[in-house]
Amino acid sequence: MIIGNFGLSRDQQRAQMAMWAIMAAPLLMSADLRKMDPYSKSILLNKDVIAINQDPMGQPGSIILDVSSLLGL
């Protein structure tokens, strides 16, 4: 994860954390947590997102609805 590092926008940081949660992957940080700004730290400490990642079965997320079919794409 490069949240809090490399000049990512807030939206990019949130998207990266969401993808991490869905993939049920281990959390590896590349930023110095002692120097991280409060917004980035709040993303990493979001208990709801962490709970998604820590599914008891350890299974990654899966597609449950293909929106393109609803939009006629």
List keywords for this structure.
Alpha-galactosidase, 73 residues, 45% helix, glycosidase
Overview of the molecule:
The protein is an all-alpha fold. It has one domain (1-53). It has 4 helices and no strands. The chain has helices spanning 10-23, 38-44, 47-53, 67-71. The radius of gyration is 14 Å and the shape is globular. It starts with 9 loop residues before the first helix and ends with a helix. The mean pLDDT is 87. It holds the Pfam family Melibiase_2. Keywords: Glycosidase, Hydrolase. InterPro entries: Aldolase_TIM, GH, Glyco_hydro_27.
Compact overview of the structure:
With 73 residues, this protein is an all-alpha fold. It is built from four helices and no strands.
Present the secondary structure layout:
Elements lengths: L9 H14 L14 H7 L2 H7 L13 H5 L2
Helix pairs in contact: 1-2, 1-3
Tell me the overall shape: globular
Distance between the termini: 33 Å
The portion of residues assigned to helices is 40-55%
Please tally the β strands and state the result: 0
Average pLDDT value? Answer: 87
Estimate the strand proportion: under 5%
Query: What gyration radius follows from the Cα positions, in whole Å?
Result: 14 Å
Given helix and strand content, the structural type is mainly alpha
Largest sheet: none
Number of domains: 1
Helix/strand order = HHHH
Count of runs of 4 or more consecutive helical residues: 4
User: Uncertain spans, ≥5 residues at pLDDT below 50?
Assistant: none
